[in-house]
Design brief:
Elements lengths: L1 E3 L17 E3 L7 E3 L1 H4 L1 H12 L5 E5 L8 E7 L2 E7 L5 E5 L14 E3 L3 E2 L6 E2 L5 E3 L27 E5 L2 E5 L7 H5 L1 H10 L5 E11 L3 H8 L5 H4 L1 H5 L9 E5 L6 E5 L8 H6 L28 E6 L3 E6 L2 E9 L5 E10 L4 H10 L11 H15 L5 E3 L17 H14 L2
Antiparallel strand pairs: 1-2, 3-21, 4-13, 5-6, 5-8, 6-7, 9-10, 10-11, 12-13, 14-20, 15-16, 16-17, 17-18, 18-19, 19-20
Length: about 425
């Protein structure tokens, strides 16, 4: 099948990608990925409309960020700014950050506390649910001006999104008829999710934020691509957090959109053969000055010492040893996305565990011991995709199989994701 395209050049920074006509997938084979999947403005517009603004649950915040009535955080669903509030009744609301009067994106602070939401331009005032409750000069002044008699404030509230929560995380959707979060994730993915979001109250430890010059889907691929883990990440393999041949699984839900990588670190010394397989990533001469960062305190029933869950379309849930966090993907066109990291623990952690989680938080983030290489690798990929004409990438590792694999030498999860993506986008 093909989809019609109004343009074929991505943006002005790349070479032209196609002759006039339509997009066509190479022979329908998911082991071949055409460059326009990552570079086309038309494809990106369809993704915003059909994925982020379609029937999906988008992560927007953690309940621990808005514990009290009046608390709010600014968030995003794709490029649409939203405000997540805790109402006076304790309920959670997600409304668009766009004044109904002149369209001003009026909430400019990342988080705070307020009794009402006020646009500074003309002082239109909303309650915490988005209801319009104040319009200056609505009746005019001294008999002059004002709004017509049939102007109804109830017709001009902030557009609200559908909201659901589970285990302390908040999700929103533009679609009104959505399945439950449990049905959306499925049984196997829900089990991984509930390991971290078990209902224990969360304690926020801090935030990171960075921008990556690559297509937003490449970050999903990166977490569904265990192939690179023992070849790219020096820290990961040198200090034994993951090694080739480890007990591991790359899990995929039946739809293909969600995934979870689980692995158990090894304790045996690295053999010469294993070191050779891990190539340049393994550097035996490196030593840690503080080995406490590698300590693992068992606290969950599942066997893995690391899980990275990809929650379609905009969330990564991380658990590496005892560090916990989420990463929110905010796309900025086909060639860039922002990544918002929130690190947390649990309210019932003692002081020692809190210090331990904070110490291990250095593994994560834009300059983290484990995260720094991914951003650069994604930039390399995007540069290659946007500067060549009609290229095709290869995702053939593990053959043509899709779905869950009980090993990490596979790209089956990536193929599964694009099976779903093609159906949604109409390719």
């Amino acid at each position: 099948m093909t989809i019609e395209s109004r343009e074929h050049s991505g943006n002005g920074n790349g070479r032209g990608r196609h002759e006039p006509g339509s997009f066509a997938w190479p022979d329908g084979d998911l082991t071949r990925m055409p460059d326009w999947v990552y570079t086309s403005d038309e494809i990106y517009r369809r993704e915003v409309e059909r994925i982020f603004e379609g029937p999906t649950w988008n992560y927007v915040a953690l309940e621990a960020e808005i514990p009290n009535p009046g608390d709010f955080v600014r968030s995003s669903v794709a490029e649409t700014q939203v405000i997540v509030t805790r109402g006076t009744d304790g309920g959670i609301h997600v409304v668009q950050n766009r004044c109904s009067h002149r369209g001003a994106e009026f909430c400019r602070t990342p988080r705070g506390h307020a009794k009402t939401l006020v646009c500074p331009y003309h002082q239109w005032t909303y309650d915490l649910t988005g209801k319009l409750i104040g319009v200056p000069f609505r009746r005019g002044l001294k008999g002059q001006g004002g709004y017509p008699q049939d102007f109804k404030p109830e017709n001009h509230g902030l557009p609200a999104l559908n909201v659901t929560t589970r285990g302390g995380a908040i999700f929103a959707s533009f679609a009104k008829d959505m399945p439950s979060i449990e049905d959306y994730l499925g049984t196997e993915m829900l089990e991984v999710y509930d390991t971290v979001f078990s209902g224990r109250k969360l304690r926020i430890h801090g935030y990171y934020r960075n921008s990556i010059p690559g297509n937003w889907k490449l970050y999903h691929e990166n977490l569904k691509d265990p192939y690179h883990a023992t070849l790219l990440h020096v820290y990961l393999v040198t200090f034994g957090l993951m090694r080739a041949g480890a007990n591991a699984s790359m899990m995929v839900d039946p739809s293909g959109r969600h995934g979870a990588m689980g692995a158990t670190r090894g304790s045996a010394p690295v053999s010469a053969d294993a070191a050779k397989q891990m190539g340049r990533a393994f550097i035996d001469s490196l030593k840690l000055s503080d080995e406490r960062i590698l300590d693992f305190v068992p606290e969950f029933r599942e066997p893995w010492t690391v899980t990275m869950q990809t929650f379609w379309p905009n969330l990564i849930i991380q658990r590496e040893l005892n560090t916990l966090g989420v990463r929110q993907i905010v796309p900025r066109g086909p060639h860039a996305f922002d990544l918002y990291w929130t690190m947390f623990g649990y309210e019932d952690d003692d002081d020692e565990m809190t210090r331990h989680r904070l110490r291990q938080a250095n593994l994560m983030g834009p300059a983290g011991f484990l995260g720094i290489e991914d951003s650069e690798a994604i930039e390399y990929v995007q540069d290659g995709l946007r500067r060549t004409r009609d290229g095709v990438a290869v995702t053939e590792l593990g053959g043509r199989e899709e779905g869950t694999a009980k090993h990490l030498i596979t790209e089956a999860a990536i193929r599964s994701m694009y099976r779903h993506w093609r159906e949604v986008i109409g390719v």
